[in-house]
């Protein structure tokens, strides 16, 4: 069935904004500018300020939700289901997981390439699958276990490519390895977030935009307040800012004043995360969850190609192999092979059996990919 113009628009919007989200964050990291108090020119290394901007983008989804709801209520027959009433504090634990994971990933993005950053985020499949089995009692089908093992292989290949060629890029080899490990660590926290959301949040039938916005509100509020003590916590050279503190928000604003293009990169990150969440939810609703997964994988390719074109990183053949292996693992875990097998008479029964053993699998996949942050941040 051919896609409508609106469906094509949504697919393009999701692919574009998802790519801009990572590229704009990396672009901000590449600027250098003078700071406060006559500090010499130095790199813009403010991951927690960037994370605050990301949560502001998620928070804006709450405004979009209420605008959509108000517009829908003016119709003779409202179509939007606002969901049942719920305690917003249900979202606080997963929001804190999102905050920690996103902050760690923005620290890591300053140490490694944008393409490796995006590819290594595929590790969330491994930890989500294992935690879902341990704490939610879910039984994974053989193809999902195979997908997990292939994903691990892909992660090893991408990490190996960074290890072998790290000296060719602007980052030191030790920084690249540390950044890659931090990204993997962050995916463990993201998987905890997903398990918490599924166990305590999704059963309340909360509208996705409202869920994204509520988590964005908690993340924005808490992390904004944490910027105050971070200003006084000394961490030495790890911070890469003149005062050697965990986060110097004042230095970030001073650098923005000296180099206005930084605010453009930060706004790109904030706006793109809001539109990406909206487009992702709409793609799932208007087309399918499978299409959303494919588009999410394609944005990794877009980020890699754009980074090469801009000269941000060098071509690595081993990284291409890692990307293809990760793509295969993701496809197997998410069941993208099932429509193909269903067309083969001898395999159709196996597909039906797999779906019966996981009755809510497609809905779970939608939920697993609902929030971008600790997931597209």
UniProtKB/TrEMBL annotation:
Asked if Transport is a keyword of the record, the answer is yes
Q: Does the keyword RNA-binding apply?
A: no
Keyword annotations: Membrane, Mitochondrion, Transmembrane, Transmembrane helix, Transport
Instruction: Report the membrane topology from the UniProt record.
Output: Multi-pass membrane protein
Compartment list = Membrane; Mitochondrion
- A single GO cellular-component term on record: membrane
**Which molecular function terms from Gene Ontology are attached?**
transmembrane transporter activity
Which region ranges are annotated with the description Disordered? 358-377
- Family, per entry: Belongs to the SLC35F solute transporter family.
* Assembly and binders: Interacts with SLC25A5.
PANTHER family registered for this protein in UniProt: PTHR13146, SOLUTE CARRIER FAMILY 35 MEMBER F6
Name listed for the protein in its UniProt record: Solute carrier family 35 member F6
Give the source species.
Answer: Pleuronectes platessa
Organism lineage reads as:
Eukaryota, Metazoa, Chordata, Craniata, Vertebrata
């Amino acid at each position: 069935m051919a896609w409508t113009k609106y469906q094509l628009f949504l697919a393009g919007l999701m692919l574009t904004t998802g790519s801009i989200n990572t590229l704009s964050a990396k672009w901000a990291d590449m600027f250098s500018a003078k700071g406060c108090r006559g500090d010499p020119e130095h790199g813009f290394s403010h991951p927690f300020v960037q994370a605050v901007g990301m949560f502001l983008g998620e928070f804006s989804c709450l405004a979009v939700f209420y605008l959509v709801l108000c517009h829908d209520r003016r119709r003779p027959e409202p179509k939007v289901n606002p969901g049942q009433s719920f305690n917003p504090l249900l979202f606080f634990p997963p929001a804190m997981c999102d905050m920690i994971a996103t902050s760690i990933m923005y620290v890591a993005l300053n140490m490694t390439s944008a393409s490796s950053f995006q590819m290594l985020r595929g590790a969330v499949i491994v930890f989500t699958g294992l935690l879902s089995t341990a704490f939610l009692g879910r039984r994974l089908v053989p193809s999902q276990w195979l997908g997990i093992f292939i994903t691990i292989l892909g992660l090893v290949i991408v990490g190996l490519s960074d290890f072998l060629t790290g000296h060719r890029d602007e980052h030191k080899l030790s920084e690249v390895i540390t950044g890659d490990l931090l990204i993997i660590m962050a995916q463990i926290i993201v998987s905890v977030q997903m398990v918490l959301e599924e166990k305590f949040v999704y059963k309340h039938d909360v509208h996705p935009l409202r869920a994204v916005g509520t988590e964005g509100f908690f993340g924005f509020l808490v992390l904004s307040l944490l910027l105050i003590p971070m200003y006084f916590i000394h961490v030495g050279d790890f911070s890469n800012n003149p005062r050697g503190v965990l986060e110097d928000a004042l230095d970030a604003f001073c650098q923005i004043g000296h180099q206005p293009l930084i605010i453009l990169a930060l706004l790109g990150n904030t706006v793109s995360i809001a539109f990406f969440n909206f487009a992702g939810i709409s793609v799932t609703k208007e087309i399918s969850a499978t299409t959303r997964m494919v588009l999410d994988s394609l944005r990794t390719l877009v980020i890699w190609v754009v980074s090469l074109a801009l000269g941000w990183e060098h071509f690595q053949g081993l990284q291409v192999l890692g990307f293809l292996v990760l793509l295969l693992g993701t496809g197997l875990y998410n069941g993208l092979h099932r429509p193909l097998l269903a067309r083969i008479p001898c395999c159709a029964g196996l597909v039906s059996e797999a779906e019966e053993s996981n009755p809510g699998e497609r809905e779970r996949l939608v939920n697993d990919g609902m929030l971008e942050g600790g997931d597209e941040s």
